């Protein structure tokens, strides 16, 4: 895209956070970084410390950063959840809530995260999809702003779910659980669409396969616990294991995580304790495992003691 982006592209936002609706005079004549994101995306979470750092480092130089939250899953359309994510990630620049994909379509975007670098005339001078390339991206910003100084990217360090992945040992891909995009399901008998069914976990799980135990309903985007108790398990090879979860219409519910059949101990993620105890209280990405020692093939299992939990996707790092 090397022609001006008409500033009316942002008119399709259903809501604005951290600002009144941005009018065209506020963007005209300014270098702008547009960041497409969705609150459960692990790739966006790991890139966010850099965007946050650029927004603060170059604000006085005239940079305008605009976050565009375009939901991947239906529950992410709830602007209250978007507000929670904005607060949790300490985002202080304008965010357009793009529930109808209007801004997404105006940019002909297809990815989370996606960065578009606009000059003062609204021309996209560069773009980048996914993680990485941080120093080059910052150099693009400096050229657009007409400044030259030490890069802040070299000093950025993510923590918790924002920490960079252990790419050397990462051998497990993102794994969707809803039947629209789900694969590598290992419970005997396969999966039933849109109706409750009792599942069993096989004795052995192959790497990057997952299984259910108990009564679950498989829906397009997620699997939903229909019975009084149930669990899901995944065999993975990575330092980190995350799971996108939502309590649906129910209130907070406890869950427990086991790693290779035992409490995780020092391998617990930020959302569980050493005994594997955690609470599902909002729709977001939960970090279940962070391995502090040798990364190896392991099985993570999460169990709920009451119905209603919705599970969307495993992601790894």
TrEMBL record:
Gene3D superfamilies, alphabetized: Galactose-binding domain-like, Glutaredoxin
Pfam families, sorted: Redoxin (PF08534), Thioredoxin_10 (PF17991)
Domain Thioredoxin: from-to ranges: 1-146
Highest taxon of the lineage: Bacteria
InterPro entries, alphabetized: Redoxin, Thioredoxin-like_sf, Thioredoxin_10, Thioredoxin_domain, Thioredoxin_ResA/DsbE_sf
GO molecular function terms attached to this record: oxidoreductase activity
Identification of the protein by name: Thioredoxin domain-containing protein
Source species: Catellatospora coxensis
Organismal lineage: Bacteria, Bacillati, Actinomycetota, Actinomycetes, Micromonosporales
